[in-house]
Amino acid sequence: MADDLNVEKVSEVFNEYMTIGGKNDIEALFETIPYFTSQQKKVYAMLSFFDTKYNLPRIRSFIDDYKGVEKENRSSITFKKCIEAMALKQHFKGLKLNLGD
Fold it and tell me: I need a surface site. Which of 3, 46, 69, 94 has the fewest CB within 10 A?
């Protein structure tokens, strides 16, 4: 059976399974996880307002850097649990489709 396995076909099926609407499920999920708390959103909005009103490039640079750091720090336990739940859902969805044949 291993000799009959076509690597290209497996790769094609895997890519089709993982890709939905041009993005894979993990990327789509990761983009939906918030990276600011409600207080951080308020401070970010105020700093953005002052930057726009008074043209303060140092503030813009700071909030852009801070936003980047917060985006990178999203890998929390909650995110990991969401990934696990999504993987289980996809696994059982695949089992359901295979058993239905």
Answer: 3
